[in-house]
Amino acid sequence: MSAENSSSGSESTPSRTPPSFQDLVRDAMRQHKHEKESEAHQIFRNAAGHKPKGVIPQTVNPDEETVPGIEHPGSTGVIYCSDRAMANGFNYANSHEWANLGQGAPEVGPIPNAPSRPDSIPMPVDSLEYAPTTGVKELREAVAHLYNDTYRKDKASKYTYENVCIVPGGRAGLSRVAAVIGDVYTSYQIPDYTAYDQVLSAFKRLVPVPTALDIKSKYKLDIEQTKKDIRTQGLAVILASNPRNPTGQVIKGHDLKELVSLGREGTTTILDEFYSWYIYPEHESGYGKSISAAKYVEDVNQDSTVIIDGLTKNWRLPGWRVCWVVGPKNLITALSQSGSFLDGGANHPMQLAAIPLLDPARVALEKVALQRHFKAKRDHVLARLHDLGLDVDLPPSSTFYIWLNLAQLPEPLNNGLVFFEELLKFKTIVIPGIFFDINPAHRRNLFNSPCHHFVRLSFGPPIEDLDRGLDAIGLVLKKAKRNGSANFGHGYV
Protein backbone atom coordinates (compact mmCIF):
# COMPACT_ATOMS: atom_id res chain seq x y z
CA MET A 1 0.00 0.00 0.00
CA SER A 2 1.38 3.41 -0.89
CA ALA A 3 1.87 6.15 1.66
CA GLU A 4 -0.83 8.06 -0.17
CA ASN A 5 -3.34 5.41 0.91
CA SER A 6 -2.13 5.17 4.52
CA SER A 7 -3.59 7.30 7.27
CA SER A 8 -0.34 6.97 9.19
CA GLY A 9 1.64 8.80 6.52
CA SER A 10 4.45 6.25 6.61
CA GLU A 11 6.75 5.68 3.70
CA SER A 12 5.45 3.44 0.99
CA THR A 13 6.34 -0.22 1.18
CA PRO A 14 7.75 -2.10 -1.80
CA SER A 15 4.88 -3.40 -3.91
CA ARG A 16 4.56 -7.12 -4.54
CA THR A 17 4.33 -8.28 -8.11
CA PRO A 18 0.75 -9.53 -8.30
CA PRO A 19 0.19 -13.04 -9.63
CA SER A 20 -1.47 -13.39 -13.02
CA PHE A 21 -4.73 -15.22 -13.68
CA GLN A 22 -2.77 -18.26 -14.91
CA ASP A 23 -0.46 -18.13 -11.87
CA LEU A 24 -3.44 -18.25 -9.54
CA VAL A 25 -4.94 -21.25 -11.30
CA ARG A 26 -1.63 -23.13 -11.31
CA ASP A 27 -1.07 -22.23 -7.65
CA ALA A 28 -4.52 -23.52 -6.72
CA MET A 29 -3.94 -26.79 -8.56
CA ARG A 30 -0.45 -27.24 -7.10
CA GLN A 31 -1.10 -26.33 -3.46
CA HIS A 32 -4.65 -27.43 -2.86
CA LYS A 33 -6.78 -30.51 -3.07
CA HIS A 34 -10.18 -30.94 -4.65
CA GLU A 35 -13.20 -29.04 -3.32
CA LYS A 36 -14.71 -32.38 -2.20
CA GLU A 37 -12.09 -32.50 0.55
CA SER A 38 -12.97 -29.07 1.97
CA GLU A 39 -15.78 -28.76 4.51
CA ALA A 40 -16.40 -25.09 3.66
CA HIS A 41 -16.72 -25.91 -0.04
CA GLN A 42 -19.06 -28.82 0.60
CA ILE A 43 -21.35 -26.59 2.67
CA PHE A 44 -21.46 -24.26 -0.33
CA ARG A 45 -22.14 -27.04 -2.84
CA ASN A 46 -24.91 -28.49 -0.67
CA ALA A 47 -26.81 -25.19 -0.60
CA ALA A 48 -29.76 -25.23 -3.00
CA GLY A 49 -28.76 -24.23 -6.52
CA HIS A 50 -24.99 -24.48 -6.08
CA LYS A 51 -24.33 -28.02 -7.29
CA PRO A 52 -22.49 -28.37 -10.62
CA LYS A 53 -24.87 -28.23 -13.58
CA GLY A 54 -24.78 -30.01 -16.88
CA VAL A 55 -23.09 -33.09 -15.40
CA ILE A 56 -23.54 -36.30 -17.37
CA PRO A 57 -25.38 -38.44 -16.45
CA GLN A 58 -27.88 -35.78 -15.41
CA THR A 59 -29.19 -36.34 -11.88
CA VAL A 60 -32.08 -34.88 -9.92
CA ASN A 61 -31.55 -33.63 -6.39
CA PRO A 62 -34.78 -34.53 -4.51
CA ASP A 63 -34.05 -31.87 -1.87
CA GLU A 64 -34.13 -29.17 -4.52
CA GLU A 65 -36.68 -30.37 -7.07
CA THR A 66 -39.62 -30.80 -4.69
CA VAL A 67 -41.93 -29.37 -7.36
CA PRO A 68 -41.69 -30.95 -10.82
CA GLY A 69 -39.87 -28.76 -13.29
CA ILE A 70 -38.52 -26.34 -10.69
CA GLU A 71 -34.77 -25.67 -10.51
CA HIS A 72 -32.99 -23.60 -7.87
CA PRO A 73 -31.06 -20.82 -9.62
CA GLY A 74 -28.53 -20.46 -6.78
CA SER A 75 -28.28 -17.47 -4.46
CA THR A 76 -26.14 -14.40 -4.86
CA GLY A 77 -23.04 -14.10 -2.70
CA VAL A 78 -24.62 -11.72 -0.20
CA ILE A 79 -27.68 -13.95 0.32
CA TYR A 80 -25.59 -17.12 0.73
CA CYS A 81 -23.28 -15.41 3.19
CA SER A 82 -26.20 -13.95 5.14
CA ASP A 83 -27.77 -17.41 5.39
CA ARG A 84 -24.48 -18.85 6.68
CA ALA A 85 -24.20 -16.00 9.18
CA MET A 86 -27.71 -16.76 10.44
CA ALA A 87 -26.71 -20.40 10.90
CA ASN A 88 -23.95 -19.03 13.14
CA GLY A 89 -26.23 -16.87 15.27
CA PHE A 90 -26.65 -13.67 13.24
CA ASN A 91 -30.09 -12.05 13.14
CA TYR A 92 -31.32 -8.54 12.60
CA ALA A 93 -32.09 -8.10 16.29
CA ASN A 94 -28.41 -8.61 17.19
CA SER A 95 -26.90 -7.19 14.00
CA HIS A 96 -25.20 -4.42 16.01
CA GLU A 97 -22.99 -7.12 17.53
CA TRP A 98 -21.77 -8.20 14.10
CA ALA A 99 -19.49 -6.54 11.56
CA ASN A 100 -21.09 -6.94 8.16
CA LEU A 101 -18.32 -6.23 5.67
CA GLY A 102 -20.15 -8.34 3.11
CA GLN A 103 -23.35 -6.44 2.40
CA GLY A 104 -23.02 -4.35 -0.73
CA ALA A 105 -24.67 -1.32 0.83
CA PRO A 106 -23.38 2.08 1.95
CA GLU A 107 -24.10 3.51 5.37
CA VAL A 108 -27.43 5.31 5.21
CA GLY A 109 -27.12 7.82 8.06
CA PRO A 110 -25.90 11.42 7.99
CA ILE A 111 -22.34 12.11 6.83
CA PRO A 112 -20.41 15.38 7.13
CA ASN A 113 -21.48 18.25 4.84
CA ALA A 114 -24.09 16.21 2.97
CA PRO A 115 -27.71 17.33 2.53
CA SER A 116 -30.04 16.14 5.27
CA ARG A 117 -31.42 12.62 5.04
CA PRO A 118 -35.07 12.16 3.94
CA ASP A 119 -37.21 11.62 7.05
CA SER A 120 -40.77 11.59 5.71
CA ILE A 121 -42.60 10.39 2.59
CA PRO A 122 -45.65 12.35 1.35
CA MET A 123 -48.48 10.14 0.13
CA PRO A 124 -51.04 12.00 -1.95
CA VAL A 125 -54.13 9.94 -2.76
CA ASP A 126 -53.07 9.49 -6.39
CA SER A 127 -49.84 7.81 -5.21
CA LEU A 128 -51.88 4.94 -3.78
CA GLU A 129 -52.64 3.83 -7.33
CA TYR A 130 -50.30 1.69 -9.43
CA ALA A 131 -47.53 3.68 -11.09
CA PRO A 132 -46.87 3.16 -14.83
CA THR A 133 -44.48 0.27 -15.49
CA THR A 134 -42.06 2.80 -17.02
CA GLY A 135 -42.32 4.95 -13.91
CA VAL A 136 -43.75 8.33 -12.92
CA LYS A 137 -43.21 10.79 -15.76
CA GLU A 138 -41.92 13.57 -13.49
CA LEU A 139 -39.21 11.29 -12.07
CA ARG A 140 -38.24 10.11 -15.54
CA GLU A 141 -37.89 13.77 -16.55
CA ALA A 142 -35.75 14.47 -13.48
CA VAL A 143 -33.41 11.56 -14.32
CA ALA A 144 -33.07 12.71 -17.94
CA HIS A 145 -32.39 16.29 -16.81
CA LEU A 146 -29.70 15.17 -14.35
CA TYR A 147 -27.86 13.16 -17.04
CA ASN A 148 -28.08 16.04 -19.52
CA ASP A 149 -26.91 18.58 -16.95
CA THR A 150 -24.02 16.41 -15.71
CA TYR A 151 -22.74 14.76 -18.89
CA ARG A 152 -24.40 16.22 -22.00
CA LYS A 153 -24.38 20.03 -21.80
CA ASP A 154 -22.33 20.20 -25.01
CA LYS A 155 -24.37 17.57 -26.88
CA ALA A 156 -27.08 18.29 -29.45
CA SER A 157 -28.80 15.00 -28.65
CA LYS A 158 -30.40 15.09 -25.20
CA TYR A 159 -32.18 12.48 -23.08
CA THR A 160 -35.90 12.94 -22.47
CA TYR A 161 -38.30 11.06 -20.22
CA GLU A 162 -38.79 8.65 -23.13
CA ASN A 163 -35.20 7.47 -22.61
CA VAL A 164 -35.77 6.55 -18.96
CA CYS A 165 -37.50 3.59 -17.33
CA ILE A 166 -37.93 3.53 -13.54
CA VAL A 167 -37.45 0.05 -12.02
CA PRO A 168 -37.73 -1.43 -8.49
CA GLY A 169 -34.02 -2.01 -7.95
CA GLY A 170 -30.93 -2.71 -10.03
CA ARG A 171 -31.62 -6.44 -10.30
CA ALA A 172 -35.08 -5.66 -11.63
CA GLY A 173 -33.47 -3.42 -14.23
CA LEU A 174 -31.06 -6.18 -15.24
CA SER A 175 -33.90 -8.70 -15.40
CA ARG A 176 -36.08 -6.44 -17.53
CA VAL A 177 -33.23 -5.87 -19.98
CA ALA A 178 -32.31 -9.58 -20.05
CA ALA A 179 -35.94 -10.51 -20.72
CA VAL A 180 -36.03 -8.51 -23.97
CA ILE A 181 -32.69 -9.70 -25.36
CA GLY A 182 -32.92 -12.37 -28.07
CA ASP A 183 -30.76 -15.46 -28.61
CA VAL A 184 -27.34 -13.82 -28.57
CA TYR A 185 -23.78 -14.28 -27.39
CA THR A 186 -23.33 -12.15 -24.28
CA SER A 187 -19.87 -11.09 -23.12
CA TYR A 188 -19.14 -10.78 -19.42
CA GLN A 189 -15.96 -10.48 -17.38
CA ILE A 190 -14.42 -12.33 -14.44
CA PRO A 191 -14.49 -11.09 -11.74
CA ASP A 192 -17.70 -9.06 -11.77
CA TYR A 193 -20.96 -8.49 -9.91
CA THR A 194 -22.26 -11.72 -8.40
CA ALA A 195 -25.89 -11.29 -9.58
CA TYR A 196 -24.80 -11.58 -13.24
CA ASP A 197 -24.33 -15.29 -12.57
CA GLN A 198 -28.03 -15.71 -11.77
CA VAL A 199 -29.15 -13.47 -14.65
CA LEU A 200 -27.12 -15.46 -17.16
CA SER A 201 -28.37 -18.72 -15.66
CA ALA A 202 -32.06 -17.77 -15.55
CA PHE A 203 -32.37 -16.13 -18.96
CA LYS A 204 -31.40 -19.00 -21.23
CA ARG A 205 -31.47 -16.96 -24.44
CA LEU A 206 -28.33 -15.14 -23.33
CA VAL A 207 -25.41 -17.38 -24.29
CA PRO A 208 -22.61 -16.45 -21.85
CA VAL A 209 -19.11 -15.81 -23.19
CA PRO A 210 -16.53 -15.11 -20.44
CA THR A 211 -13.43 -12.93 -20.49
CA ALA A 212 -10.95 -13.32 -17.62
CA LEU A 213 -9.49 -10.00 -16.48
CA ASP A 214 -5.90 -10.08 -15.25
CA ILE A 215 -4.57 -8.31 -12.18
CA LYS A 216 -1.33 -7.59 -14.09
CA SER A 217 -3.35 -5.25 -16.32
CA LYS A 218 -5.21 -3.87 -13.29
CA TYR A 219 -8.34 -5.80 -14.28
CA LYS A 220 -8.64 -3.57 -17.31
CA LEU A 221 -10.98 -4.61 -20.12
CA ASP A 222 -8.97 -4.80 -23.36
CA ILE A 223 -11.15 -2.82 -25.77
CA GLU A 224 -9.19 -3.85 -28.86
CA GLN A 225 -9.48 -7.53 -27.91
CA THR A 226 -13.19 -6.99 -27.30
CA LYS A 227 -13.54 -5.60 -30.81
CA LYS A 228 -11.80 -8.69 -32.18
CA ASP A 229 -14.09 -10.95 -30.15
CA ILE A 230 -17.11 -9.15 -31.60
CA ARG A 231 -15.87 -9.90 -35.10
CA THR A 232 -14.70 -13.47 -34.50
CA GLN A 233 -17.24 -14.69 -31.94
CA GLY A 234 -20.29 -12.70 -32.95
CA LEU A 235 -20.76 -11.02 -29.58
CA ALA A 236 -24.01 -9.05 -29.63
CA VAL A 237 -24.17 -7.86 -26.01
CA ILE A 238 -21.49 -6.72 -23.53
CA LEU A 239 -22.46 -6.69 -19.84
CA ALA A 240 -20.20 -5.02 -17.27
CA SER A 241 -20.21 -3.03 -14.06
CA ASN A 242 -18.44 0.32 -14.26
CA PRO A 243 -17.03 1.27 -11.79
CA ARG A 244 -16.34 -2.38 -11.30
CA ASN A 245 -17.60 -4.51 -8.43
CA PRO A 246 -15.59 -6.15 -6.75
CA THR A 247 -12.15 -4.88 -7.83
CA GLY A 248 -12.82 -1.17 -7.32
CA GLN A 249 -11.42 -0.19 -10.72
CA VAL A 250 -13.06 1.96 -13.38
CA ILE A 251 -13.16 2.33 -17.17
CA LYS A 252 -12.92 6.03 -18.00
CA GLY A 253 -11.69 8.54 -20.55
CA HIS A 254 -10.61 7.15 -23.92
CA ASP A 255 -11.33 3.54 -22.96
CA LEU A 256 -14.91 4.34 -21.94
CA LYS A 257 -15.39 6.38 -25.10
CA GLU A 258 -14.21 3.42 -27.19
CA LEU A 259 -16.49 1.03 -25.29
CA VAL A 260 -19.49 3.27 -25.92
CA SER A 261 -18.57 3.48 -29.60
CA LEU A 262 -19.34 -0.24 -29.90
CA GLY A 263 -22.99 0.72 -29.54
CA ARG A 264 -22.76 2.37 -32.94
CA GLU A 265 -21.28 -0.73 -34.54
CA GLY A 266 -24.00 -3.30 -33.91
CA THR A 267 -23.18 -4.37 -30.34
CA THR A 268 -25.31 -3.45 -27.33
CA THR A 269 -23.33 -2.34 -24.28
CA ILE A 270 -25.07 -2.68 -20.90
CA LEU A 271 -23.26 -0.81 -18.15
CA ASP A 272 -24.16 -1.14 -14.48
CA GLU A 273 -23.12 2.30 -13.15
CA PHE A 274 -24.31 2.07 -9.55
CA TYR A 275 -20.95 3.27 -8.17
CA SER A 276 -20.58 6.20 -10.58
CA TRP A 277 -20.12 8.73 -7.74
CA TYR A 278 -17.65 6.62 -5.76
CA ILE A 279 -14.60 8.02 -7.55
CA TYR A 280 -11.65 8.88 -5.29
CA PRO A 281 -9.56 11.78 -6.60
CA GLU A 282 -5.96 12.39 -5.61
CA HIS A 283 -6.29 16.16 -5.97
CA GLU A 284 -8.76 18.67 -4.59
CA SER A 285 -10.01 19.64 -8.05
CA GLY A 286 -11.25 16.10 -8.63
CA TYR A 287 -13.96 16.13 -5.98
CA GLY A 288 -17.52 16.18 -7.27
CA LYS A 289 -16.76 14.48 -10.58
CA SER A 290 -18.47 11.25 -11.56
CA ILE A 291 -18.33 8.67 -14.36
CA SER A 292 -20.96 7.68 -16.91
CA ALA A 293 -21.10 6.31 -20.43
CA ALA A 294 -23.74 9.01 -21.03
CA LYS A 295 -20.89 11.46 -21.64
CA TYR A 296 -19.81 9.61 -24.78
CA VAL A 297 -23.17 8.70 -26.32
CA GLU A 298 -23.61 10.60 -29.58
CA ASP A 299 -27.28 9.98 -30.38
CA VAL A 300 -29.39 8.93 -27.40
CA ASN A 301 -31.82 7.01 -29.61
CA GLN A 302 -29.34 5.43 -32.03
CA ASP A 303 -26.37 4.43 -29.86
CA SER A 304 -27.01 1.01 -28.33
CA THR A 305 -25.70 1.95 -24.89
CA VAL A 306 -27.80 1.00 -21.87
CA ILE A 307 -27.12 2.49 -18.42
CA ILE A 308 -28.49 1.09 -15.15
CA ASP A 309 -28.26 3.17 -11.96
CA GLY A 310 -30.43 4.43 -9.12
CA LEU A 311 -30.75 5.73 -5.58
CA THR A 312 -29.32 2.56 -4.01
CA LYS A 313 -25.60 3.39 -3.80
CA ASN A 314 -24.98 7.01 -4.83
CA TRP A 315 -27.87 8.49 -2.85
CA ARG A 316 -27.32 5.87 -0.10
CA LEU A 317 -30.98 4.81 -0.14
CA PRO A 318 -30.93 1.04 -0.74
CA GLY A 319 -34.26 0.51 1.01
CA TRP A 320 -36.16 2.74 -1.41
CA ARG A 321 -35.79 0.35 -4.38
CA VAL A 322 -35.97 3.22 -6.87
CA CYS A 323 -33.61 2.78 -9.82
CA TRP A 324 -33.62 3.40 -13.55
CA VAL A 325 -32.54 2.22 -16.97
CA VAL A 326 -31.42 4.86 -19.48
CA GLY A 327 -31.18 4.07 -23.19
CA PRO A 328 -32.78 4.46 -26.63
CA LYS A 329 -36.52 5.10 -26.39
CA ASN A 330 -37.43 1.94 -28.33
CA LEU A 331 -35.65 -0.02 -25.58
CA ILE A 332 -37.73 1.76 -22.93
CA THR A 333 -40.93 0.63 -24.70
CA ALA A 334 -39.68 -2.97 -24.55
CA LEU A 335 -38.78 -2.60 -20.86
CA SER A 336 -42.27 -1.36 -20.10
CA GLN A 337 -43.62 -4.57 -21.59
CA SER A 338 -41.19 -6.86 -19.73
CA GLY A 339 -41.87 -4.99 -16.49
CA SER A 340 -45.57 -5.63 -16.83
CA PHE A 341 -45.02 -9.35 -16.24
CA LEU A 342 -41.76 -9.36 -14.25
CA ASP A 343 -42.20 -6.86 -11.43
CA GLY A 344 -45.16 -4.55 -12.10
CA GLY A 345 -43.21 -1.35 -11.47
CA ALA A 346 -41.53 0.61 -8.70
CA ASN A 347 -43.16 1.93 -5.54
CA HIS A 348 -45.34 4.93 -6.46
CA PRO A 349 -44.91 7.13 -3.32
CA MET A 350 -41.15 6.52 -3.24
CA GLN A 351 -40.85 7.63 -6.86
CA LEU A 352 -42.56 10.92 -6.05
CA ALA A 353 -40.33 11.39 -3.00
CA ALA A 354 -37.24 10.80 -5.15
CA ILE A 355 -37.88 13.69 -7.55
CA PRO A 356 -36.39 16.53 -5.43
CA LEU A 357 -33.34 14.38 -4.61
CA LEU A 358 -32.27 14.53 -8.27
CA ASP A 359 -31.94 18.31 -8.33
CA PRO A 360 -28.44 18.96 -9.80
CA ALA A 361 -27.51 21.47 -7.08
CA ARG A 362 -28.36 18.97 -4.33
CA VAL A 363 -26.55 16.19 -6.22
CA ALA A 364 -23.39 18.31 -6.42
CA LEU A 365 -23.30 18.59 -2.61
CA GLU A 366 -24.03 14.87 -2.18
CA LYS A 367 -21.17 13.85 -4.48
CA VAL A 368 -18.48 15.86 -2.73
CA ALA A 369 -19.57 14.81 0.76
CA LEU A 370 -19.78 11.15 -0.27
CA GLN A 371 -16.36 11.13 -1.95
CA ARG A 372 -14.58 12.76 0.99
CA HIS A 373 -16.23 10.50 3.55
CA PHE A 374 -15.74 7.22 1.71
CA LYS A 375 -12.20 8.02 0.63
CA ALA A 376 -11.30 8.56 4.31
CA LYS A 377 -12.85 5.20 5.17
CA ARG A 378 -10.98 3.53 2.31
CA ASP A 379 -7.66 4.89 3.50
CA HIS A 380 -8.42 3.86 7.07
CA VAL A 381 -9.19 0.26 6.08
CA LEU A 382 -6.13 0.02 3.80
CA ALA A 383 -3.90 1.30 6.61
CA ARG A 384 -5.29 -1.22 9.10
CA LEU A 385 -4.93 -4.09 6.62
CA HIS A 386 -1.33 -2.99 6.07
CA ASP A 387 -0.72 -3.17 9.83
CA LEU A 388 -2.12 -6.73 9.76
CA GLY A 389 0.31 -7.68 6.98
CA LEU A 390 -2.45 -7.77 4.36
CA ASP A 391 -1.37 -5.25 1.76
CA VAL A 392 -3.84 -4.92 -1.09
CA ASP A 393 -2.49 -5.75 -4.56
CA LEU A 394 -4.60 -3.07 -6.24
CA PRO A 395 -6.17 -0.46 -3.94
CA PRO A 396 -9.61 0.64 -5.16
CA SER A 397 -9.87 3.90 -7.07
CA SER A 398 -13.67 3.66 -7.00
CA THR A 399 -16.63 1.78 -5.40
CA PHE A 400 -16.52 0.93 -1.67
CA TYR A 401 -14.92 -2.50 -2.03
CA ILE A 402 -11.48 -3.96 -1.44
CA TRP A 403 -10.53 -7.06 -3.43
CA LEU A 404 -8.26 -8.74 -0.90
CA ASN A 405 -5.82 -11.46 -2.00
CA LEU A 406 -5.27 -14.10 0.71
CA ALA A 407 -2.73 -16.16 -1.26
CA GLN A 408 0.12 -15.36 1.16
CA LEU A 409 -1.74 -16.79 4.17
CA PRO A 410 -1.16 -20.39 5.29
CA GLU A 411 -3.50 -23.11 4.07
CA PRO A 412 -6.46 -23.36 4.39
CA LEU A 413 -6.93 -19.68 5.36
CA ASN A 414 -5.65 -18.69 1.94
CA ASN A 415 -8.96 -19.48 0.23
CA GLY A 416 -11.96 -17.20 0.47
CA LEU A 417 -14.57 -19.72 1.61
CA VAL A 418 -12.54 -20.95 4.58
CA PHE A 419 -11.52 -17.40 5.54
CA PHE A 420 -15.22 -16.44 5.42
CA GLU A 421 -16.27 -19.40 7.62
CA GLU A 422 -13.54 -18.66 10.17
CA LEU A 423 -14.60 -15.01 10.42
CA LEU A 424 -18.19 -16.07 11.14
CA LYS A 425 -16.88 -17.47 14.43
CA PHE A 426 -15.87 -13.90 15.29
CA LYS A 427 -19.20 -12.37 14.16
CA THR A 428 -17.82 -10.88 10.97
CA ILE A 429 -19.12 -11.30 7.41
CA VAL A 430 -17.13 -10.96 4.17
CA ILE A 431 -17.88 -12.30 0.67
CA PRO A 432 -15.71 -15.14 -0.72
CA GLY A 433 -14.20 -14.33 -4.09
CA ILE A 434 -15.73 -17.32 -5.88
CA PHE A 435 -19.08 -15.51 -5.99
CA PHE A 436 -17.53 -13.05 -8.43
CA ASP A 437 -16.33 -15.85 -10.69
CA ILE A 438 -19.33 -15.63 -13.00
CA ASN A 439 -19.77 -19.30 -13.81
CA PRO A 440 -23.42 -19.94 -14.81
CA ALA A 441 -22.97 -23.71 -15.26
CA HIS A 442 -21.22 -24.08 -11.86
CA ARG A 443 -19.03 -26.80 -13.40
CA ARG A 444 -15.58 -25.59 -12.45
CA ASN A 445 -13.80 -27.13 -9.47
CA LEU A 446 -13.90 -24.22 -7.04
CA PHE A 447 -10.24 -24.71 -6.14
CA ASN A 448 -9.35 -23.88 -9.74
CA SER A 449 -11.23 -20.59 -9.76
CA PRO A 450 -9.06 -17.50 -10.34
CA CYS A 451 -11.09 -15.89 -7.54
CA HIS A 452 -10.46 -18.72 -5.07
CA HIS A 453 -7.84 -16.83 -3.02
CA PHE A 454 -9.88 -13.65 -2.69
CA VAL A 455 -12.52 -12.09 -0.49
CA ARG A 456 -14.39 -8.85 -1.01
CA LEU A 457 -14.44 -6.44 1.91
CA SER A 458 -16.96 -3.61 1.91
CA PHE A 459 -16.09 -0.29 3.51
CA GLY A 460 -19.68 0.80 3.01
CA PRO A 461 -20.65 0.43 6.72
CA PRO A 462 -19.92 3.04 9.42
CA ILE A 463 -16.34 3.25 10.69
CA GLU A 464 -17.10 1.51 13.99
CA ASP A 465 -18.39 -1.56 12.10
CA LEU A 466 -15.30 -1.54 9.91
CA ASP A 467 -13.02 -1.51 12.95
CA ARG A 468 -14.98 -4.34 14.58
CA GLY A 469 -14.53 -6.47 11.44
CA LEU A 470 -10.84 -5.59 11.10
CA ASP A 471 -10.32 -6.52 14.75
CA ALA A 472 -11.87 -9.92 13.96
CA ILE A 473 -9.53 -10.43 11.01
CA GLY A 474 -6.65 -9.65 13.36
CA LEU A 475 -7.90 -12.26 15.84
CA VAL A 476 -8.08 -14.94 13.12
CA LEU A 477 -4.53 -14.14 12.03
CA LYS A 478 -3.29 -14.23 15.65
CA LYS A 479 -4.98 -17.59 16.13
CA ALA A 480 -3.21 -18.93 13.05
CA LYS A 481 0.15 -17.60 14.23
CA ARG A 482 -0.29 -18.97 17.73
CA ASN A 483 -1.83 -22.38 17.00
CA GLY A 484 -0.95 -23.03 13.38
CA SER A 485 -3.49 -23.83 10.70
CA ALA A 486 -4.49 -27.30 11.86
CA ASN A 487 -7.54 -25.93 13.69
CA PHE A 488 -8.90 -24.19 10.59
CA GLY A 489 -11.08 -25.55 7.81
CA HIS A 490 -13.47 -27.72 9.82
CA GLY A 491 -16.02 -27.72 12.64
CA TYR A 492 -18.49 -25.39 10.91
CA VAL A 493 -22.13 -25.10 11.94
UniProtKB/TrEMBL annotation:
Question: Where is there biased composition of kind Low complexity?
Answer: 1-20
Q: What Gene Ontology terms for biological process does this UniProt record contain?
A: amino acid metabolic process
Composition bias type Basic and acidic residues, residue spans: 24-38
| Residue ranges of the region described as Disordered | 1-38
Q: Does the keyword NADP apply?
A: no
**Entry keyword set:** Aminotransferase, Pyridoxal phosphate, Transferase
User: Which superkingdom is the protein from?
Assistant: Eukaryota
Ranges of residues in domain Aminotransferase class I/classII large: 98-473
GO molecular function, a single term: transaminase activity
InterPro entries recorded = Aminotransferase_I/II_large (IPR004839), AspAT/PAT-like (IPR050596), PyrdxlP-dep_Trfase (IPR015424), PyrdxlP-dep_Trfase_major (IPR015421), PyrdxlP-dep_Trfase_small (IPR015422)
Instruction: Kindly give the Gene3D superfamilies that the UniProt entry links to this protein.
Output: Aspartate Aminotransferase, domain 1, Type I PLP-dependent aspartate aminotransferase-like (Major domain)
Q: What is a single Pfam family found in this protein's UniProt entry?
A: Aminotran_1_2
What CDD domains does the entry give? AAT_like (cd00609)
Q: Which cofactor does it need?
A: pyridoxal 5'-phosphate
Tell me its family.
Belongs to the class-I pyridoxal-phosphate-dependent aminotransferase family.
The protein here is known as Aminotransferase class I/classII large domain-containing protein
